Amino acid sequence: MKKILYGTTALVAVGAFAATGAQAAEPIQVTVGGYFQAAFVFVDYDNDDGRRSRTLQREAELIFGGSTTLDNGLQVGVQVQLEAETCADQIDESFIYLAGNWGRLNIGSENSAAYLMHVASAPPSHWAFGLNSPNISLTGNFPHTSPVSLTSDAEKVTYFTPRFAGFQLGASYAPDACEEGGCGGTFSGSEFDDGSDGSVGDVIEIGVNYTGKWNEIEFAASGSYGTADDESTGDGPEEWSAGVRVGYAGFTIGAGYREFDSVIGDETTDWNVGVRYATGPWGVGIQYAAIEIDPNNGNRSDVQAVEVGGSYDLGPGVVLFGGVQYWEGDYDSASARAGTIADDETWVGFIGTMFSF
């Protein structure tokens, strides 16, 4: 479920159907791009039993993609994202697409329309290290994520309308929550399960967003909804989210919100808010995120975090970034606390760089 923003936002990437490709009626010519990011991380936590206080985090991908325009005006393309390190999901996302003045159709392993069209607060330092749905978790605490993501990169079909008067609608359908023969996402199972094992199927995720500009003020807002069937219980999970972002004179202010109701009655509320300022190669910001998990057994968990950070563009495709995070957790029981390190307080500092190519 990694976000690949290519120096912009997923919102813009979804809204733009035109892309550079080969000449009309020529075969698809595949090019290679990608990124490599690494950061030194230093952690100071109250619950430090058996835990290292420093580490080196890295993450990289090679991205293969290409497109062409047929004689009838139909644009077709392909994208494959290959992890540049050994991991369980070696191929992150892989899909084909068709596009024209009627919209765009994605087929394959890719995030849903609800996820891609979501708007939220901007990360203070770098898109992979913010508090909202980061690519790299620096603490192992409960993840903060405000976009709807019932299926992650599960195999699906997604349609995006053209943008009319600033509005765009997208819808995704996934027969199950399985990805490339293995099962990930929020719910697992195998591709041909009947649902009796607790996995879900017939997942529908819908998103809508608006982008506009008045004088020097840029505005974006989104809303999304997801639902699925659980054949073992006859009832399925539901998830919805909303977000807003406003930009003016180098400042970007945003917020995102999500609610999730599981099959067994667990409820999760997740939200974030932040502001970032950028001028020339410099950027600084602050972000706050909180998550409340209220399971049906009553063992509630609350985790909140703040990040202050910044970035500096050294040149095309090369950025330095760094920041400080503060985490605090409140748990009703030892079982709710298990697997986390935010028992009381956790401080995190990081500094790193990313090369894009």
What is the topological layout?
Layout: H1 10-15, E1 31-45, E2 54-69, E3 75-83, E4 91-100, E5 103-109, H2 113-116, E6 155-160, E7 167-176, E8 178-179, E9 182-183, E10 201-214, E11 217-229, E12 238-248, E13 251-261, E14 267-279, E15 282-294, E16 301-315, E17 318-331, H3 334-337, E18 345-356
Antiparallel strand pairs: 1-2, 1-18, 2-3, 3-4, 4-5, 5-6, 6-7, 7-10, 8-9, 10-11, 11-12, 12-13, 13-14, 14-15, 15-16, 16-17, 17-18
Overview of the structural elements:
By secondary structure, the protein is mainly β. Helix content is 4%, strand content 54%. The protein is built from 3 helices and 18 strands. It has helices at residues 10-15, 113-116, 334-337; strands at 31-45, 54-69, 75-83, 91-100, 103-109, 155-160, 167-176, 178-179, 182-183, 201-214, 217-229, 238-248, 251-261, 267-279, 282-294, 301-315, 318-331, 345-356. A 16-stranded antiparallel barrel has the order 1-2-3-4-5-6-7-10-11-12-13-14-15-16-17-18. Strands 8-9 form a two-stranded antiparallel ribbon. Strand 13 and strand 14 form a beta hairpin. The protein is globular, with a radius of gyration of 20 Å. The two termini are 21 Å apart.
CATH fold descriptor: Porin
Biggest sheet, open or closed, and with what strands and sense? 16 strands, antiparallel, barrel
CATH H-level superfamily: Porin
Overall tally of domains: 1
Pick out the low-confidence regions: 1-20, 183-192
Morphology: globular
Radius of gyration: 20 Å
Give the distance, in angstroms, between the N- and C-terminal Cα atoms. Answer: 21 Å
Order of helices and strands: HEEEEEHEEEEEEEEEEEEHE
Strand arrangement in the largest pleated sheet? 1-2-3-4-5-6-7-10-11-12-13-14-15-16-17-18
InterPro entries: Gram-neg_bact_OMP (IPR050298), Gram_neg_porin_domain (IPR033900), Porin_dom_sf (IPR023614)
Main location: membrane
Signal peptide: 1-24
Membrane topology: Multi-pass membrane protein
